[in-house]
Amino acid sequence: MSDVPSDLKYTKSHEWIRVEGDEATIGITDHAQDQLGDMVFVEVPEVGAAFDVGDACAVVESVKAASDVYSPLTGEVIESNEALADSPESVNQDAYGDGWIMKLKLSDPEELEELLDADAYAEFCENEDH
């Protein structure tokens, strides 16, 4: 499996979360984009949309399948990566950078404690692949 950045948090549904203060940048993991294949379409949420943990908040579509992206935290969308409409391949090329999907203003920072760290996520992926 590819490297899992240690400064991020993760979900078992393969979203990554980078937290800065009370804001979180969210995308799908390198593992997820690798499983899905070449992205052909990404639907990002609208700014101002509010999500609870586990709500479907975006859609990624690849040559293989369409998949929902789930909100790992409760909050309001303060920014969406509109560039993905024209360049969905950014998710494949730079999942943890230019391929981010949305930024949330967190409603409940304590939810971060429920997320996986890099080691736990890497172990989860290894077990899932076997």
Describe the protein.
The protein has helices spanning 30-36, 90-93, 118-128; strands at 9-10, 15-20, 23-28, 39-43, 50-51, 56-62, 66-70, 75-80, 102-106. The model has no long low-confidence stretch (mean pLDDT 94). By secondary structure, it is an alpha+beta fold.
Brief characterization of the structure:
The chain has 130 residues and is α+β, with helices and mostly antiparallel strands. Helix content is 17%, strand content 34%. It contains three helices and nine strands.
Span between N and C termini? 12 Å
Mean pLDDT across the residues is: 94
Strand order, main sheet: write it out. Answer: 1-2-3-9-8-5
Instruction: State the total count of DSSP E strands.
Output: 9
| Portion in beta strands | 25-35%
Sketch the major β-sheet. 6 strands, antiparallel
Which stretches are poorly predicted, pLDDT < 50 over at least 5 residues? none
Q: How many whole angstroms does the radius of gyration measure?
A: 13 Å
> What's the overall geometry?
globular
Element-level helix/strand string: EEEHEEEEEHEH
- Which structural class best describes the helix and strand composition? alpha+beta
Share of helix among residues?
10-25%
**Total DSSP helices:** 3
